[in-house]
Design the sequence.
């Protein structure tokens, strides 16, 4: 393996999620389409209808083959809340940033919920040296999906 291709996040309200990921986090929309998901069985409220989903791809880097976030919305599908840090399974994703304090202030001003306020931690778990530090914080997106931001300091 040599890198992350993408991170997929299921959402309840695509417009609200686009505003969060695009306007607050600064990602850029590169694809927005509705797809027929033939083989996937979804528990829809209407029952029996073949599910479709709206997908929006957002990038945070420029260039070919850049990693991206996929927002995926199945209308009318019942879904449990996303996992939290103490749950089994993928419970958050983390992104390196260069401006964590400014980003956190913008998110706080917009009313975004923090699970962990900006904090300095040892960089050993990140691959850094024993004297290196990382500034980190964890926020919730509009559906409660946890996103961590990390900055080398």
Sequence:
């Amino acid at each position: 393996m040599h890198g992350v291709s993408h991170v997929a996040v299921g959402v309840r309200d695509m417009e609200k999620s686009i505003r969060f990921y695009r306007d607050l986090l600064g990602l850029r929309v590169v694809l927005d389409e509705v797809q027929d998901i033939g083989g996937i069985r979804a528990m829809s409220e209407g029952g029996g209808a073949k599910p479709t989903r709206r997908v929006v791809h957002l990038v945070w880097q420029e260039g070919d083959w850049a990693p991206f976030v996929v927002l995926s919305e199945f209308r009318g599908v019942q879904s449990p809340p996303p996992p939290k840090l103490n749950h089994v399974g993928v419970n958050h994703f983390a992104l390196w940033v260069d401006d964590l304090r400014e980003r956190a202030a913008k998110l706080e001003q917009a009313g975004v919920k923090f699970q962990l306020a900006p904090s300095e931690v040892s960089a050993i778990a990140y691959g850094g040296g024993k004297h290196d530090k990382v500034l980190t914080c964890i926020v919730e997106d509009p559906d409660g999906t946890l996103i961590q931001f990390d900055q080398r300091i």
Summary: The domain at 93-152 is CATH 3.10.180.10 (2,3-Dihydroxybiphenyl 1,2-Dioxygenase; domain 1). Helices lie at 14-24, 100-109. Strands lie at 6-10, 28-36, 52-59, 68-73, 93-96, 114-122, 133-140, 146-152. The first strand starts at residue 6 and ends at 10.
